[in-house]
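TEACHING EXERCISE
Course module: macromolecular assemblies
Task: Read the component lines below, then compare them to the predicted structure of the full complex.
Student: A.B.
Group: 4
Components provided:
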Amino acid sequence: MSAATAANPVANPAASAPAMRQVGLGKAVGHSLTLAGRNIRYIVRSPATLVDTIIQPVLFLVVFVFLFGGEVAGDWHTYLQTLVPGLMVQITLYASVGTGLALNTDIAKGVFDRFRSLPIARSAPLVGAVLGDVVRYALALTVLLGLAFAFGFRVQTDVLSVLFAVLLVIGFGLTLCWLSVLIGMVAESPQAVPGIAMSLVLPLTFGSNIFASPDTMPGWLQAWIEVNPVSHFVDAARGLMLGGEVAGPVLWSLGSMAVILAVLFPLAVRAYARRARS
Amino acid sequence: MTDAIRAEGLVKTYGSTRALAGVDLTVPAGSILGVLGPNGAGKTTTVRVLSTLLSPDAGSAVVAGHDVVRQPVAVRRAIGLTGQYASLDEELTGFENLVLIGRLLEMPRREARARAAELLEQFGLTEPGARAVKTYSGGMRRRVDLAASLVNRPQVLFLDEPTTGLDPRSRNQVWSIVRELSKEGTSVLLTTQYLEEADQLADRITVIDQGRVVAEGQADDLKRRTGSQTLLVRPGDARDVPRVSRILAALIGGEPTVDEDAGVVTAPVDDPVLMSALVRRLDEDGITADELALRLPSLDDVFLALTGSPAERAADGRSADGTDGTDGDARSPMNERSAA
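Instructor-supplied answer key:
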């Protein structure tokens, strides 16, 4: 009997499901917020995280605008306008890698065991980590937009549209961070997380319309860019901040968020439950 | 409540490895149970099952009156757990770590802060409590970790190898904290690789090996079964080992243990007078000894007496079955891959 239950952990529902139910939803939210607060404190406390969050946007903006801007768009002022909404998506994606890294570090350090030995909702450490990361995305986006404005980036629409663009991009980060969570749960060690994550994030960001118009690219690349959800988010952000088509790209974006969540969220939660039970 | 912990027939299997092969143990309320065993014996797995981190494949356990499988949240409310590795947030201060736990236990902010300050003071950590944990020494980490498991004033405390890797001074500090807690009525289950630690702290000792309980009793019982002391001889010339072994056998009226690689002969003895007799015999035979000592029984001696095989060999035997030699006990928590 023991072999059977070991091979199929789902066959032992008493292990996890009732444990969740015994902690009320309201309390679960409270636990999650407490742990999100811890993760926010972490951002300020850990210089590496802070530097990552601040340096990356600055670096990408400066390098691409001044190094490639003239070549790609004729002059860097023009390039700045099209690049900034795209960089918003890219920066958020990069920041989402941190979610899995932080979770895996907690597991390796045993902090996770400590949380799990407390009478808190089993989902709280996961939800707390993801919520805390919203602050990191917002911080990175603020740095990016602040510097972009200083360089002369000008919004062609209104404040509400920009706000919607920012929320949409953060929503994308929250969606794709489940990929990061999944990697964080599967990876053997914290050191392994960024490597795996970046090898997935790079084709998503560079294989998109963020940096250059796909018109001059080979057909197979155009085909990939067409299905890459990142491109639709970039289109949506451009439409919302610079004018142009909004409804189509936004619908595409929301649709791809739903699909990605439907696939990744159950996988990530299952990996989490499995890791938590071993 | 009579028993703080009662476990029956706990089984946990990882793939083809039986980490627990039917462990029974009991901790009467207010007492300290020492779970003694070598690396890979199943000590950590036992603690993880009893503290609800792991669900058993078979068997049952009741901790603080609640079933670990059916009422895990109730169990968690009543227990404190200090793992083998300090499970603290390195970036936060000691104080912040304790406050975080208080807040997760739904204490109001002020109460959480007061409890954190109280624990730090109790453990002599008020001053370092304001610094980030990553600046702490091993002993300080362990004490803060211990404090973290006490925030909820647990009825039952699990300590997984609480002094492994600590210097003697820090070890003594941890010991006195555990004694103090026990005096206040906390029931304690502690795992250890050191017979001395179990002897110092525990009211009763359960010895486990390869996922099974191989002996249970008071420290004195176990020591009586292992001989109260061990006589160790290392002849200056390794070729004398068989002769020394024969001499010792004649003196104790039993078969001594010979470690050919180390060139050492050991035997359990009850009467320290044997030492001087041995010295005379070695002298008569013209054997010089590089090392000649009378010491307390080591875990190896206990294992030899209880299982007929030395602890090290028992652990090595496991690695032949396809697990790494250190097994789950030595691995970082949760880092082992689930078999499922």
